[in-house]
Amino acid sequence: METLSKEPELSEKAKEYIFSSERSEDFKAFNAGEEKGYVRDHDAGFAKGAALGTIAVISTTTIAGLAYLKSKN
How far apart are CA 53 and CA 26, in angstroms? Predict the structure, then answer.
């Protein structure tokens, strides 16, 4: 797990082991699903972070604008 957190891509040795003819189709499908799930979760996490960042910037700008207008009166 530690290696996967640093290098999300599979190494050549790992690919050879997983996709060798000695492995069952279930084993190959499971590992392919795990990799797809990791990528999908990573993309979803990035999208959530970008959305929250955008909302934070808009909120801060709105509050600053309202404070400016209130102090102007």
Answer: 40
